[in-house]
């Protein structure tokens, strides 16, 4: 364990992808936005001081919905009732495609980001979140943790990513955490754990 | 870090308390149940093989609502569309008060449980989740991680608990994670981290 205290680390962004993702039959779809996903991931980003959580959807009505939600919490009555929520939701950024996230981060950080795909299933090449952190530190690149809604990221999104994170495995064969809980655990492991086991 | 592989540990239950909790002014209230809390915590319990997640509310209409929700996923159309969800929601148990949870766990395990309160704020006596695990292992007692909705557990609930878990602290002063994300991180740390720092 890394213990408590200040957690250092490279710059990490979140991207919650709603399209293209898979449905239960493995077909490509655009998933609808879930209100609580936005709140939970914005609060997670704020807790771990991630510069932004991108919400990716090409659907204009969904983009409009997210902008209205953000406006409510940043400028409407929500900002007065819940100033803590305002502080978190300020980190949300809406984009139509993951490629726009890449350009955005590259512009902001001056270096192209390393994209880490996430999944509920193991792949042969996935790495622990702490190893991913070490790779970003070693290469001085920002990172984007790419999370899928629906039944997970579509193949086309995987091909845009440079690596995959080892899925959260608990105690047993059940691997159906919500994207909210999985993201929280992965971000915590990313910053908190050591990249190699103690001697 | 403890690395991957099989995570062993003592028996741990979750209890999501809706009353008595505090509102934003610190007054005691009964909070309404949030549908996604139940799904997320049931899936978390299933992932880490916790025997049950208790949903605590004395409000009969809320209990009825939760029973209808569980019935939909266990016996209704939900069970056919989402067998994975059925497997998780089977771990939910509705009780009117935390004292009933204590009796229930004692009956099931043959030993009185150790109750760990959770909070977004530090107390002088809180322990890391992995230290809490060690205490349960050493004393051979089951544990209950007690989570509050609203603005956190009421004073009366704190007095029923035997210890408090150190809050999730990220990188900075923001401590407003959702109960869903905080529970996920605490359970992961409970089973995965070492109880003492490496030499």
List key phrases describing it:
alpha/beta; disordered N terminus; 199 residues; 6-stranded parallel beta sheet; globular; homodimer
Write the layout of secondary structure elements.
2 copies of one chain form a homodimer.
Chain A: E1 12-17, E2 21-22, E3 28-29, H1 35-47, E4 53-56, H2 60-74, H3 77-81, H4 83-89, E5 92-95, H5 98-109, E6 114-117, H6 129-139, E7 143-148, H7 155-160, E8 163-164, H8 179-192
Parallel strand pairs in A: 1-4, 1-7, 4-5, 6-7, 6-8
Antiparallel strand pairs in A: 2-3
Structure, described:
Two copies of one chain form a homodimer. By secondary structure, chain A is of the alpha/beta class. The first copy, chain A, starts with 11 loop residues before the first strand and ends in a 7-residue tail after the last helix. In chain A, helix 6 (129-139) links the parallel strand 6 (114-117) and strand 7 (143-148). Chain A has helices spanning 35-47, 60-74, 77-81, 83-89, 98-109, 129-139, 155-160, 179-192, and strands at residues 12-17, 21-22, 28-29, 53-56, 92-95, 114-117, 143-148, 163-164. The first copy, chain A, is globular. Mean pLDDT of chain A is 93; it is low at 1-5. Chain A has a single domain, classed as SPOUT methyltransferase, trefoil knot domain (Alpha/beta knot, 3-Layer(aba) Sandwich), CATH 3.40.1280. In chain A, helix 1 (35-47) runs parallel beside helix 8 (179-192). In chain A, the strands form two sheets. The first copy, chain A, has a six-stranded parallel beta sheet, with helices on both faces. A two-stranded antiparallel sheet of chain A has the order 2-3. The longest helix of chain A is centred in the middle third of the chain and has 15 residues, at 60-74. Helix content of chain A is 42%, strand content 15%.
């Amino acid at each position: 364990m890394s213990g408590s205290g200040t957690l250092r680390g490279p710059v990490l962004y979140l991207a919650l992808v709603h399209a293209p993702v898979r449905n239960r039959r493995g077909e490509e779809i655009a998933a609808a936005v879930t209100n609580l996903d936005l709140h939970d991931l914005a609060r997670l980003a704020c807790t771990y001081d991630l510069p932004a959580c991108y919400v990716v959807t090409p659907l204009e009505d969904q983009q409009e919905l997210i902008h209205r939600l953000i406006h409510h919490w940043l400028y409407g009555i929500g900002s007065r009732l819940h100033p803590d929520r305002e502080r978190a939701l300020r980190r949300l950024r809406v984009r139509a495609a993951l490629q726009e996230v890449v350009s955005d981060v590259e512009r902001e950080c001056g270096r192209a980001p390393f994209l880490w795909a996430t999944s509920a299933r193991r792949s042969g090449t996935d790495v622990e979140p702490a190893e991913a952190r070490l790779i970003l530190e070693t290469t001085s690149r920002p990172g984007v943790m790419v999370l899928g809604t629906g039944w997970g990221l579509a193949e086309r999104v995987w091909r845009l990513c440079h690596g995959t994170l080892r899925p959260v495995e608990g105690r047993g064969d059940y691997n159906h955490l919500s994207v909210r809980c999985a993201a929280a655990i992965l971000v915590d492991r990313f910053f908190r754990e050591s990249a190699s086991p103690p001697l």
